[in-house]
What we know:
alpha/beta; single chain; 4-stranded mixed β-sheet; 3-stranded parallel β-sheet; globular
Amino acid sequence: CKAPAAWSDYENAPFRPPDRIQPRRVQRGNDSSMPPTDSGTPPRVLVIGSINMDLVARVPAIPRPGETLTGHSLDFIPGGKGANQAVAAARLGAQVSIAGRLGDDAFSATLRQGLTAAGIDTTAVLATPNTASGTAWISVANDGQNAITVIPGSNGAVSVEDVARWEPIIA
């Protein structure tokens, strides 16, 4: 298994959608899909959302209850609904910040570094002591079917107080 260093590595990961779904390529950087603001600067986007490490197991089929199968591969792919939205906005040319929580585990540094490498400001991402970062266990069968279990981890620790702390950066 390999651990990607950044979201850009996701494009080269062995996890692929089934053949019947064709992924759409998005041009990176400033392009006509993200017009500048009236001042000529790229739009600013703040995403408040989950940041996860996806553990993607390729398996011959999705196991039935009580069944054990031998998988083909395991990949660690940065993800999370919030993080994925932040990366997409940055790729379209926006100035992006993300607010959320990471744990104090081995995944937190990799996730933060990946977001930073994607051009995303992570100063509003808070550390959650004695807590694992969010994870998702994704089994992907040869036919493209999948089964996903999400463990919120530190994402579940986002509080009303956190949102109040982020208020100055919420436009």
